[in-house]
Amino acid sequence: MKKKLAAIVFIALTAFVLYATLVSKDYNKTVTIKAPLLKLHNQISFIDYIARWYIPFADADSADIKIQDRDKITSFGTRLKIIKLNGLSSIFKITEGNNSKEVLFTTGRNDTDTSHTVTLSYENNLWNEWFGNNNIISNAQKSLLSLKDYIEDTKRVYGYTIGVTLVTDTTFLFTQQIVANSNKKEALKKLYDALIEYAKEKNAGYNGTKILYLAATGKDSIHLYTSIGITSNIEKIPLYGDFALRRMPYQKNLIIADYEGTFGKLNELFTAMEQYRTDNSMTSMAIPFIKFSANSINFDDNEIIKVKGFFPIL
Which of 155, 209, 252, 282 could cysteine-pair with 313, CB 3.0–4.6 Å? Predict the structure, then answer.
């Protein structure tokens, strides 16, 4: 009886192992990511983006990654090739040594505008699914989570911590000037001195806040947009002219970003905020700017500054 029972158990275990190792089925893994659908679709469709989150490429040094023909990545014996783009889906063929496998990534709509889904689909047997013996599938599963972590970490995507906040300071005295790059520092100091003096003349209540946006207008010139915060006698400030009133609607939205770097590279912050705005389908209502207090910046290009950048949006 015991021998018969042992034989039955052996046969059952053998049958299960054969089934678990020889029979494959389709599996799906889904994550919800806080990002617009188009942004997620781009992440699974373009090889430069894929290299930033797909394992093992995301963990490799950029010098060890080779991108070919805009549809292949290779690093340390692993190759990913985009073999099909279909609507909201992308099929990758992953090759490690003599082993190859196809995986499907599909973006999906959620009921909200702020979060959507990405689903990983693949074929696998039960044994490998339970015990993770297939490295290609294991890396694909890790990559799905890596995509979520990457997209939701703005510092990894844009180089800065970026989010959305609400307008608090609403009223500013504004002036602008185009100057030669070599005169930028001197011009900025004169512009702010002039703004403060004008605010004093109008008894406008300068509150110590300064804001600034800079934009290149050519190879050797730059457009300076300068403002200071004011709190009183607003009706005495004209809407147009050398000195003009500027308002931002209270409690409306602002993109906000932390910046720590040289004053001369502020354009990189403004570019990153613009890309964040575009990626998240936001509509701008004014130019971006940094906000700082009193004499906290000397306007030297090599000066290290720590400020917050803002970008008014609807």
Answer: 282
Total domains, the chain:
2
The rounded distance, in Å, linking the Cα atoms of 253 and 135 is 45
pTM above 0.90, yes or no: no
Kind plus residue range of the DSSP H or E element containing 89: strand 89-96
CATH number at residue 112: 3.30.530.20
What is the domain-level CATH number for residue 210? 3.20.80.10
Q: Which domain holds residue 71?
A: 25-152
In Å, how far are 54, 68, 157 from 147, measured between CA atoms?
A: 7, 22, 11
Render pLDDT for 175-203 as a digit per residue (tens, 0 to 9).
999 999 999 999 999 999 999 999 999 99
Q: Which of 118, 152, 186 is the last residue of a domain?
A: 152
Please determine, for residue 20, whether its predicted confidence score (pLDDT) is greater than 60: no
Question: Alpha-carbon distance 84 to 156, whole Å?
Answer: 27
- Give the pair of three-digit tokens for residue 255: 């993109």
